[in-house]
Structure formats: C-alpha cells, structure tokens
Amino acid sequence: MKIKFKVWLDQNGKAFGNGPLELLKKVEKTGSLRKAAGQMHMSYSKAWHLIQILEGRLGFSLLDKKIGGASGGGSVLTPESKDLMAHYEKFQKEVKESLNRIFKKHFGSSFIISLPHKRGHRRTSQK
Amino acid sequence: MKIKFKVWLDQNGKAFGNGPLELLKKVEKTGSLRKAAGQMHMSYSKAWHLIQILEGRLGFSLLDKKIGGASGGGSVLTPESKDLMAHYEKFQKEVKESLNRIFKKHFGSSFIISLPHKRGHRRTSQK
Questions:
Q1: pTM for the whole thing?
Q2: pLDDT band at residue A115, thresholds of 50, 70 and 90?
C-alpha cells in the first residue's frame, strides 16, 4: 500500500503544478516552447494555450518570446517564472516528505498489514 | 491563491480516498449501498463495482450484505471498514493541516502577492 497525491496552486482553476513545472523546465533547457511541448507529447497549440491560462490565473507572464535571430526566435523564462519554479520545487519536496511521514504514522507497519485478508462477501442473516 | 490537493491510498490503482470515504459514511447512515449511491448521484451498479474494486485492492471486505428482514436486506460496514475510515479521517485531517502550513511557508504573504501583475507578452528582440 502506498500513498499517492496531486497538489496544485489554484486561482479560479489550476494555476500551477507538476505538469507546468515540467513544461517550463523543458523550455528552459531547449529555449523553445515548441520543443518543450514535443518532448511532453503535447501539441504546440495546447502548450501555448496552457501557458496563456496559467499566466491569466497567476497574474504574471511565464515566458518571454524572443523574435528573430538565427534560430527564428524562441522562448525564455521570465524572472517571475524562475522564482515560481524555485518556490514550487521546494514546496513540492516538503509536501512529499510530509505526506510520506503522515502516511507512515497512520497506515505504516501495523495497520494495513494487520488487517485480515478478504474473505469474500460475508453474509449475515437478518431476522 | 490557494493550495488544492488530492490524496489517496494506492495498491495497483486507487484503493481508498475521499470518494469511497463519503460513500461508506452514507452506507453507515442509511444502511443501504443503493441509498448511499443515490445520495452521491451515482448508479447502484457503479457504486457496487467500485466497492468490489476497492475490496480487491485493499485485501479485505468493506461491506457486509444483510439478507432478508422486513427491509429486504441492506449493507453494513465491516469492522475493518470502520477501522480504515477512522484511520483515513485522521490521516486526511493531518494532511490538510500540513499542506496548508507548507503552502503558507513557501507561498504565503510575501511570494505570490509581491509578484508584478501580468504585463502582456513582453517581447525582446534577439539579434
């Protein structure tokens, strides 16, 4: 038995979470939203739309679009985007550690293992 | 900005979480899986199927089916089911408190609020 979780920042809908973090990391690495989207098997238009929605909810820009140049432009992270990612990664790490600790406290060792194995449907007659 | 989360027990798939907890609480109250499902706008067959899957993953029975009687039978929680619910509720309460605390630590007061408001797409030319 394991614990699983999803956690995200919300502002009238999902504003940031693991998916966006991964996408932005790939933008940082590749310098391109198109390449980042491709690496996540996401269409460019879907990734672009996602960024627009997140920016609207967060209230600041995540990407700066570079125009022109030999590579035909690309995207770089805004300072605010980098700041958010750094905060979110620390936050996420602490959440993970905390949830594992709480899970062990309530379900570790003694609990789930000590429960009897399923007996099939037990039927008790009611008069 | 708020934090939102989903957390669940996993054993080759979802084995327990908020939805099942709510369903079992309603079974406890109404004495009937059919009534409990109805209150959650879920079909009886879907609720029954869910219980089967959870029982398989957990390795023990959640419900005892009562046969006959004036009411034509119904369902009661097994002792293991009640035990799981009690553990899960304490676990869930602690998770919520912990996540709120971690959220405030990383995103509270200073962070999100201090970020500048979105400026529209900033464009920097690249030569």
A1: 0.79
A2: low
Is the ipTM higher than 0.90? The answer is no
Q: What single DSSP character describes residue B124? A: E
A15, A61, A115 ranked by CB distance to B80: nearest: A115
- Reported as a single tens digit per residue, the pLDDT across A65-82 is 876 655 556 899 999 999
User: Which of A58, A91, A127 faces B106 most closely, judged by CB atoms?
Assistant: A91
- DSSP SS3 for B65: strand
The identity of residue B2, as a single letter, is: K
Question: How distant, in Å, are the alpha carbons of A26, A27, A59, A87, B31 from that of A21?
Answer: 9, 10, 17, 11, 45
The answer to whether the CB atoms of B120 and A61 lie below 8 A apart is: yes
Contact residues for A21 (Cβ-Cβ < 8 A; gap 6+): A85, A88, A89, A92
Helix (H, G, I), strand (E, B), or coil: what is residue A78? Answer: coil
Contact assessment for residue A27 and residue A77, using Cβ atoms and an 8 Å cutoff: yes
What domains sit in chain A, N to C, each tagged with a CATH number?
Answer: 9-91 (1.10.10.10)
